[in-house]
Design brief:
Radius of gyration of chain A: 17 Å
Structural class of chain A: alpha/beta
Order of helices and strands of chain B: EEHHEHEHEHEHHEHEHEHEHEEHEHHEHH
Structural class of chain B: alpha/beta
CATH class of the largest domain in chain B: Alpha Beta
Oligomer: heterodimer
Number of helices of chain B: 16
Strand content of chain B: 15-25%
Order of helices and strands of chain A: HEHEHHEHHEHEEHEHEHEHH
Bound molecules: pyridoxal-5'-phosphate
Radius of gyration of chain B: 19 Å
Helix content of chain A: 40-55%
Number of strands of chain A: 9
Strand order of the largest sheet of chain B: 3-4-14-9-10-13
CATH topology of the largest domain in chain B: Rossmann fold
CATH architecture of chain A: Alpha-Beta Barrel
CATH topology of chain A: TIM Barrel
Chain lengths: 269, 395
């Protein structure tokens, strides 16, 4: 079993959660890259299936989606990919996906196949708790966990409602906007985590804009259970497209650096 | 759990969490002000004195003779800005003003909604940004220029085919980062709740007036109400008044582009399948995995792979029919209509006219049709010229 409860319980520090678009830039290179991330110390993986219209994503991940789609990625191949990762090393795998891909695949079948491949949780970028009841029964039936977002503008009552529907972790963003690198971390992250903790003891992971070891350290110090790093890692792909053999080493070095920072930081959650 | 903004199984609220509070704020403001005396008075005055409502219902005599039945034009092309879009932007702009918002953003395809938003931005002194696909910026450059004249910033959107879908993606992304002081003035009766409901509301005067004018002019309801369908705002505006009149046949006309057996069309209801995009469940043009197709159609305002949820519902319930016409048929009727009526119709609206031309000889001559002439075609002269140069057609 590779559930979140066990993982967060075992770690005495903030979990390191890199994000990848499955199949970026190609299936094989992406597979090598994710394995490198595990070797470099990733505690949990957040993987995305590329979508033609990713409205929650900034330019870096939009381009990653396009590269992956151009190389032929489909939801079925993405599930196969997840199976290969799970066979390589047991690790909790959270999926980030846009709703239409699940709807077209068939919600129940998707949840079942994802679980079978070794998946842990599903976060649907464009499905809020208001409409989530059309999916939650299938998620639960498959034995998967739910992840929902809380943003800096989420009202107090809604935090309770979101936490009540969350069985995995709460995905929190440090500021308003899409995914993408930021130069500095918002000052609001510490009060936001504190605010959420007044409502719930569900694990809290912070993403969007985490771009350096310093950011990761700040997030850990603010009491997060996990730190999710997406665009900055995807950038390692974008910057090395002409020399693909350098992609995995560059990402591996970056992830190892974050890991060292988290290990040195005082315990989170 | 509440299921808001539903039209049968269609519609909904499918957006990232960060947008929910903003959509709820707009919904609450709309519910509060829609029947508020001051709001209604201000909006009616703007409709009348600024935009030019009510618009006439005009019997297009020579065109009627050609098709063999009576065609009444609902002259939305005469409105300020040249299209029905101003009905919605005045309504939402006023709502933004009542909410105390000072910045507007909008997406645009043909540039008509962008222009109508720029007009309202200038009118109310609000900073306005318009997102527009790169292809559309080129093919609708007249409107781009007009938007800039009125002080709006036009932001060209790379990505995709550079059309309406891409503009909406980018406007939504921008909005997530600026949600606190910015009002997203959405241009059509699609997208997440509450937009389909709000846009319909502000376009309802089209149908309300047309229904009354019809009774006055011909002493009865029309047999047929026809409109083009992109996202569906001008169509729902007209149709809304006739939904309960079971004897009025309702037809929406989509962009058949280069043919329904290609991917170069935007006939979403005719050829699409159900899915979720841009916040709502509706018909979409998509592949078997759920990736959205890039559409292509001569008319930028129809060039969208989705459609408003109420139209999806009207299709499935059988209350309305949805059909398509090809680019070539649109160009044919554009030419004919200019010469027979002295009116240059928007390429969008020409879709509705093209379908009527195809009904020539198929409808009894007593038939009375109301067609929404949703906009004027000055903006399209360049596109038509590039397909069918005047010089080549001169005898
Ligand atoms: C004149 C005109 N008619 C129709 C449309 C299509 O939009 P809708 O389907 O929302 O009426 C547009 C869009 O730009 C337009 O400019």
């Amino acid at each position: 079993m590779t559930g979140y409860h066990e993982t967060f319980g075992r770690l005495k520090r903030t979990a390191l959660i890199p994000f990848f678009v499955i199949g970026d830039p190609t299936y094989e290179q992406s597979l090598e890259l994710v394995k490198t991330a595990l070797d470099a110390g990733a505690d949990i993986l957040e993987l995305g299936i590329p979508f033609s219209d990713p409205i929650a994503d900034g330019p870096t991940i939009q381009k990653a989606d396009l590269r992956s789609l151009a190389a032929g990625m489909t939801p079925a191949k993405a599930l196969q990919f997840i199976g290969e990762i799970a066979a390589f090393q047991p690790v909790p795998i959270g999926l980030l996906v846009y709703y239409n891909l699940i709807v077209q695949y068939g919600t129940e079948r998707f949840c079942r196949d994802f679980k079978e491949a070794g998946g842990t949780s599903i976060l649907v970028a464009d499905l809020s708790i208001d409409d989530a009841d059309e999916m939650i029964p299938a998620v639960e039936a498959a034995g998967l966990e739910t992840v929902f977002m809380i943003t800096p503008n989420t009202p107090e009552e809604r935090i309770d409602a979101i936490a009540a529907k969350t069985t995995g972790f709460l995905y929190t963003v440090s500021r308003l906007g899409t995914t993408g690198e930021r130069n500095d971390l918002s000052d609001s992250i510490r009060p936001l985590i504190a605010r959420i903790k007044r409502h719930t003891n569900k694990p809290i992971c912070v993403g969007f804009g985490i771009s350096s070891a310093e950011h990761a350290r700040q997030v850990a110090n603010a009491g997060a259970d996990g730190v999710i790093i997406g665009s900055r890692i995807v950038k390692c792909i974008e910057e090395n497209l002409c020399t693909p053999e350098r992609i995995a080493p560059a990402a591996g070095r970056f992830i190892a650096g974050i890991k060292a920072a988290l290990e040195a930081a005082p315990s989170g959650g | 759990m509440k299921r808001k903004g539903r039209y049968g199984p269609f519609g909904g609220f499918y957006v990232p969490e960060v947008l929910i509070p903003a959509l709820e704020e707009i919904e609450a403001a709309f519910e509060r002000f829609r029947d508020d005396a001051a709001f209604v008075r201000d909006l009616d005055l703007l409709y009348k004195d600024y935009a030019g409502r009510p618009t006439p219902l005009y019997l297009a005599g020579r065109f009627s003779e050609i098709v063999g039945f009576s065609v009444y034009l609902k002259r939305e092309d005469l409105l300020h800005g040249g299209a029905h879009k101003i009905n919605n932007t005045l309504g939402q702009g006023l709502l933004a003003r009542f909410m105390g918002k000072i910045k507007l953003i909008a997406e645009t395809g043909a540039g008509q909604h962008g222009l109508a938003t720029a007009i309202v931005g200038a009118l109310f002194g609000m900073e306005t940004k318009v997102f527009m696909g790169r292809t559309d910026v080129e093919r609708q450059n007249v409107n781009v220029h007009k938007m800039k004249l009125m002080g709006a910033e036009v932001i060209p959107v790379e990505g995709g085919t550079g059309t309406l879908k891409d503009a909406i993606n980018e406007a939504l992304r921008y909005w997530t980062a600026h949600i606190e002081d910015t009002f997203y003035l959405f241009g059509t009766a699609a997208g997440p709740h509450p937009y389909p409901m709000i846009v319909r509301h502000f376009q309802e005067p089209i149908g309300r007036e047309a229904r009354r004018q019809c009774l006055e002019k011909i002493g009865r309801l029309p047999d047929l109400a026809v409109a083009c369908v992109g996202g569906g705002s001008n169509a729902i505006g007209l149709f809304s008044a006739f939904l309960e009149d079971k004897d009025v046949r309702i037809v929406g006309v989509e962009g058949g582009g280069r043919g329904l057996d290609t991917h170069q069309h935007c006939a979403t209801l005719v050829k699409g399948s159900v899915g979720v995009l841009h916040g709502c469940r509706s018909y979409l043009l998509q592949d078997e995995n759920g990736q959205i197709y890039e559409t292509e159609c001569i008319s930028a305002g129809l060039d969208y792979p989705g459609v408003g949820p109420e139209h999806a519902y009207l299709k499935d319930s059988g209350r309305a029919e949805y059909v398509s016409v090809s680019d070539e048929e649109v160009l044919d009727v554009f030419d004919l209509f200019c010469k027979t009526e002295g009116i240059i119709p928007a390429l969008e609206s020409s879709h509705a006219l093209a379908w009527l031309l195809k009904q020539k000889g198929r409808l009894p001559k007593e038939t009375a049709v109301v067609v929404n002439l949703s906009g004027r075609g000055d903006k399209d002269a360049g596109i038509v010229e590039s397909h069918r140069p005047l010089a080549a057609r001169m005898p």
